[in-house]
From TrEMBL:
Residues 27-232 form the Dienelactone hydrolase domain. GO terms for molecular function: hydrolase activity. SUPFAM superfamilies: alpha/beta-Hydrolases. The lineage of its organism: Bacteria, Bacillati, Actinomycetota, Actinomycetes, Kitasatosporales. InterPro entries: AB_hydrolase_fold, Dienelactn_hydro, Dienelactone_hydrolase-like. PANTHER family: ALPHA_BETA-HYDROLASES SUPERFAMILY PROTEIN, CARBOXYMETHYLENEBUTENOLIDASE-RELATED. Transmembrane segments: none annotated. It comes from Streptomyces carpinensis. This is Dienelactone hydrolase family protein. Keywords: Hydrolase. It holds the Pfam family DLH. It comes from the Bacteria.
Length: 235
């Protein structure tokens, strides 16, 4: 995403631990300058909890949210696509959703969080996790998959209660436009929720300003609409 001016007050940042799925989970938390706000979960790409993901947490905090990125890889970060593929495959979808549900509970337990539900924003692998999590956890009130890759079969969306805003690239070979159309129809048919799934003139990972696929204009449009959507849905 394009660089933004730093706010007059910077968010408070901290590495945190919390109980999740019968274990101790780790994550990166940032509070807004006001110290309080709606809770938003930020779910990593297949690379891990990278500087890019931490930067997005900081930016959401600067926009007024209490933002948490749980570390799904337990501190490991992939350095190339083969390693990222292995790490992603080593994390079963059900286990990842279980860990993320624990992170939702942790967010909602914080006195700084003012919302009754949380938002979930995820990228690539994390975008797929957003959809799986929202399908099973009614505490997710706003779901934002960003070029979200669904591994295997689509989840059962009959229990989905969250509003959904999605961002996808027209030139993304891993998620072509027809797959986005299929996802839109499945969500609508199973849940009764009509998602707002938007296409941009970009490829995969267009939000990631650490990758050559970064598209500044598309990233900026997706970011601005995401922030507005989260405020609208979470207060």
């Amino acid at each position: 995403m394009p660089e933004q001016p730093k706010p007059a007050e910077t968010p408070a940042r901290q590495n945190v631990t919390f109980p999740s799925a019968g274990a101790t989970a780790h994550g990166y938390l940032a509070l807004p300058p006001s110290g309080r706000g709606p809770g938003v979960l930020v779910i990593q790409e297949w690379w891990g909890l990278t500087d890019h993901i931490a930067d997005l947490v900081d930016r959401l905090a600067a926009e007024g949210f209490v933002a948490l990125a749980p570390d799904l890889y337990g501190g490991s970060v992939a350095h190339d696509a083969d390693e990222a593929q292995r790490m992603m495959k080593a994390l079963p979808m059900a286990r990842g959703v279980e860990l993320l549900s624990g992170a939702v509970g942790h967010l909602l337990s914080l006195p700084e969080v003012t919302s009754d539900t949380v938002g979930a924003v995820g990228f690539c692998m994390g975008g797929g996790f957003v959809l799986y999590l929202a399908a099973v956890d009614p505490r997710v009130g706003a779901a934002v998959p960003v070029y979200g890759v669904i591994r295997g079969e689509m989840p059962d969306f009959s229990g989905l209660r969250a509003r959904v805003l999605g961002h996808y690239g027209e030139r993304d070979r891993s998620i072509p436009p027809e797959k986005v159309d299929e996802l839109r129809e499945t969500l609508r048919r199973q849940s009764g929720v009509t998602p707002d799934l938007r296409l941009y003139p970009a490829g995969h990972a267009f939000v990631n300003d650490h990758r050559p696929s970064h598209d500044p204009d598309s990233a900026d449009r997706a970011w601005r609409s995401t922030v507005a959507f989260l405020h609208e849905q979470l207060g």
